Amino acid sequence: MTTLLDVTSVTIDYINGDDVTHAVRDVSFSLEKGEFVGLVGESGSGKSTLGFAIAGLSKPPAHVTGGQVLLDGVDIASLSPEQLREQRHGGVAMVLQSGMNALNPVRTIRNHFRDIFEAHGHIEKDRWDARAAELVQKVKLPATVLDRYPGELSGGMRQRISIALALSLEPKLMVFDEPTTALDVLVQHAVMDTIIELQQSEGFTALLISHDLGVVLESAQRVLVMHDGEIVEDAPAQSILNSPQDDYTRMLLSHYADPRADVVELPGFEDRGKRAGKPRAEGAVHPPSVHGRERRSDQKPIVVENLTKVYPPPRRGEAEVVAVDHVSFTLDPGESLALVGASGSGKSTIAKLITAVEKPTSGSIRFGDLDVGSLRRGQFRRLHSEVQMVFQDPYAALNPLHTVEYTLTRPVVNFTKLRGRDARRRVLELLETVGLTPVEEFAAKLPHQLSGGQRQRVVIARALASDPQVIIADEPVSMLDVSLRAGVLALLEDLREQWGVSMLYITHDLLSARIVTDNIMVLNQGRVVERGDTADVLRNPQDDYTVQLLDSVPNPRRSRVA
Amino acid sequence: MTSVTAAPRGVDADPEVDEKTEAPPSRSGNPWGYILRKIGLFLLTLWAAVTVNFILPRLMPGTPADAALARLAQNGPVSEATKAAIEAQLGVPTGNLFEQYIQYLGQVVTLNFGVSYTFYPQTVSELVSTALPYTLVLVGLVTIIAFILGTLLGVLAAWKRGTWLDTLPTVGGAFMSAFPYFWTALLLLFFAGYVWRLFPTSGAYGPTATPAFTWDFFVDALYHAILPAVTILITSLGGWILGMRNTMIPTLGDDYVAFAEANGLKPRTVALRYAARNAILPNLTSFGLALGGVVGGSILVEQVFGYPGVGYLLFNAVTNQDYPLMQALFLMITLSVLVANFIVDILYGVLDPRTRR
Amino acid sequence: MTTTRQPMRDATQDIRTVQPTGAPPNPWQVFARTAGTIWSNGKARLGLIILAFFVLLAIFAPLIAPYGATENGFDRSADASPEHWLGTTAAGEDVLSQLIWGAQISIFVGLVAGALSTLVAVLVGLSWGYTRGFIADVINFIVNLFLVIPGLPLMIVIAAYLSGGGIGMIIVVVVITGWAWGARVLRSQTQSLRSRDFVTAAVFSGERPFRIVFREILPNMTSLIVGSFFGAATAAILAEAGLEFLGLGDSSIVSWGTMLFWAQNSNALLTGQWALLFAPGLCIALLATSLTLINFGVDGISNPRLREGKQR
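Predict the joint structure of the above. Result:
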């Protein structure tokens, strides 16, 4: 084998005036021709910054301040902009994370190909159309998509098109920067399969950048683990899996498990079956709240019957969208129920209906004597004092201009009789409950001063402020780094057990559903296709759709590379 | 008129499930829905503008009709028919408001706005139809030139961000767009007309020429139109530069521009076919709306240059309290801007494939 | 939306979030930081300096102006001289003094009409952005109507009906024709903010709609509101000058617009008094430019991509 890419002591800084951040520090590695290598790291590890630098696409404020990148022996820093541009044919091609937005909305797919052929002149003009058709077929799309505009294609199709476009450059090296993270779970799986097949049939060298060690181990031969701007481990996939050397790699690995297994344990979580009713073993992260719920007896279930929600057609002349189709279930006091499905399955719509954000088309939702479906705006407080929500994106769920204290004081004042100093004491208690200590310090912070995990804890504290009976958690950890997920899940679990709150846990991630819920409902296109005890359903899935969902869970131990 | 189609309603997510089961992409390019909607909106806006023109004089204190009739009487006896027409138009309560409104609509449809007080016995329609072509040609052509030129300069400024090719057009544009129209006109008139005597100082054609479709008249008219045209060009150019630069800069940060660069497309292609082609869309909408401002500015310009278009006529109508003429002119100006907006809307539909859905 | 998304990041933000400790910024610090951002922009700084110059001129006009605004009795249509730096008008008034006093009118009209237009725009834009359904469609239609009806002709017609109303009338007319643009911009921003999770979260926190609009949404639009104020003030200054130039205002007051009105009516073009033509227009242009320049800095706050700096 010969070396294709040689990266030596590369350092990349973000320079904003006098403010310098080292994003990548003194990184060296090399790629052999024809290799499939994964580059894995959590947010802020510098992996994408490094990927862009390898492709010669670093843009201010990122500056390569040290080291060199040799592609086939040529230092890419020595190339003029025009040489760099020409080198993109037969050099490094890149597929971006946001591949769905990487296409020009006002140009047809065919024109995207033509622009590339025209810029590099590597295809005879009369072969342009034929070559474009060939390329889209390689990514498993019909040639008819060539006459479409990007807006007429689905996200997965657009990502496939951008892979085909990158392929049209006949690259030696393809850098895939999180190529599937913006896609739906099931689509992710299919696109990843295509990438793996293409790499084998076309023979390019591939660098797959991902935050998901599971995805990387499934596809790559060798894995680079990046942490805080440094490569902490560089080893073949098998040895990463079987004998990880670095603590960080070990930590990442510990967060993977197969939801189908008989016993599923994650850091901080003993298997549910084993503990059966006992509090979580190491649940001492947070002191049990003094305000634990005392009125256990008057808790009420949420009863959903024949719930249907139909949206008007998204575009003129199309059919209306049945988001939720005759769904019935009961969420008992203290129960933890998972609602799983891919995007479009209607699970988030159910959350909106239960919290009265949307009105049902038909069917009923009852919470005690409240008919949720017919609540008017003025009556929302009655519902929201008992049913609260934890949002998916902790960055969007907090007003950037309000301090944590303001954010938490509002529901305390609106839902309880506490005012002034009492309200403040309650706010500090809530912060302590969610583990944000020292509480005084966190109370004074603004959202941008908090990390993603800390923000999500504030969001949870806000949901607890009214002392609710039910918490709807809509993908509460999907935007968080893997290493932070377990902590937030553990918090939710503790709250449920110690406060007796019931939880509707909405997710596409079956592993986390297995960890924190007793019962499960699988939704496909608005309909419930399977339901039952979480462990039972996941171990013995009956419906094809459930099997598909299970297959799409990244599993480091299942290599897809032949 | 907002041209951007409404955002899709909050559906759970794209109904994008398994790609294998995904329906083949639907060919959605039916432009007629979009065009019909725009025609409907245009007619509705037209009706509203006509109605505003009817209500406006009725909201004002005093009855302009009294003043108007008194004024008309100076020119000789007023016929009953004229009196009735003026009263209907200016809101003298003959019959109820609804009947007046129907009568007024009839006048609008037949373009019969009665007789001008100032230029008695010429009818308002005659006066307007003589003046309108001058303004339409002058303002129309100059605006299109200014838009194209300004857009190109804006693209260049954004592409060469931070260099003098950016600073000069942006600061210059900000300064020029702050010029009052009439001041630019006065300065040009003073220097090019009086001091250097390069161009005629007033009128749309020389005293010896008569309007006709001849080469000589065309050259003469063009010669007279240069100063007003340059004024409008100077004053409106800056706005287009700034507008395009401001939409172009965020577009340059969009993913498809980054991807186009990553694919090694030529800088020119990236700048024009990718960035500018998208950045121009929101600007097209502002183009339609800013047109009203240019038309307003041209009134001031025509007044300074004594250019016999609708602006000059409107100014005369206002100073002479010639209400029928004023009302008809306002209606025609509004109508022109509405039509221009409608054309821009249709053009937008052609340029943006997303509107065809 | 339930698509898995990458933990928050994109290529340019792939750096560890800095977590400064210590006290949060109070409103004054926020204001200071905003002002600092504007000031750090070279163009905006130039604009602020020009604006400050005219504001000081207007405030201290009684001290600075060599003569009264309407003090006549000097030589008529005189050229520049040591006594009258910019000459005199056809009515025998000092041009420089008129220019200095005239700053008061332009700045007053700009501030008041700009503020009132913005107020209407904020009220309409926010409530329009927060309502849905039929009423929103009706408002949409009305705003669009105001947007397409050409402003100046409408002003001229209204001014003609309200003949001789003076400054107050001009302000009313400018506000009537000038609020729609800002309303539209603020509405679309309100719509985008109201669909954000933190607004939904505020509903869950038991907040009333009024408080949601004014405490959650409004503060996130500060820079847009400031921007639309400067935009409206610029338009107001130009419109006021235009109406007065046409003689549709109160032509007895001394403003830059009326100065040009009298200059044209007294044939300053023929007498060759260029200063009389040049100076008032230049003042209007400079004042309006200064506001446009400040908006470059304001844009930088709301849209970091527009901040100054070499990008490619």
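Chain A touches chain C through 85 residues (CB under 8 Å).
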